[in-house]
Amino acid sequence: AALRRDGRATLAELEAATGQSAAAIGRRLERLRTAGVLYFAVEYDREPLGQGVEAMCRLTCAPYALAEAGQAVPGRGEVRFAAAVTGRANLAVLVLCRTTGDLYTYLSERLGGLTGVQSVETTLALRRVKALTYAP
Fold it and tell me: How far apart, in whole angstroms, are the C-alpha atoms of residue 133 and residue 10?
């Protein structure tokens, strides 16, 4: 519960919240990480690192190709999030590219080359309003 409120909680804050020792907390955190229950998702300012173009792509895939396309998409370095979804499109992909030229290449060569992809609707993110659920 303490980590859900603040994923950046320090060991001292976790000790105070749980009444357990730092060693016990450390062991518990390691067990959670090993089990895949706890993982780290790091947010950073992308533009200084040369990744200034973020886009949401909504793919319409033929039903027979949805699983294959869904498995192929996350293997790409540009992909930050991918999920099978309901609606007109059936695969949502959030991509992060260095330039609009890189986005064009990603759309035309990588997504366009996937078997069964019938269409791709792309929306550029102009400004990020909210990224994480953490609220100080």
Answer: 18
